[in-house]
Write a structure and sequence with these properties.
Helix content: 10-25%
Largest sheet: none
Radius of gyration: 34 Å
Shape: flat
Number of strands: 0
Strand content: under 5%
């Protein structure tokens, strides 16, 4: 059983080390990358608050009895 565990550990180690190798190479480019054109807009000050009134009913998740810790109060 010990030899089997050591064997599987070795196999896992070899697979891990082989998967970490980097094979792709970077190619040098002579031309610089072109600028990307994006749309822009001017920023302006505005009131961002909004009020919304909803009618609803609160229903408790759980009902419990509340008692004081000291007697008589």
């Amino acid at each position: 059983m010990l030899k089997s565990s050591v064997g599987w550990l070795c196999i896992a180690g070899v697979v891990f080390l082989c998967s970490c190798s980097r094979r792709d190479t970077m190619e040098a480019r002579s031309d610089p990358p072109q600028a990307t054109v994006v749309a822009v807009a001017k920023a302006k000050h505005e009131d961002l608050s909004r009020q919304l009134t909803l009618t609803a009913e609160f229903r408790p998740f759980q009902e419990i009895d509340v008692h004081s810790k000291s007697p008589g109060t």
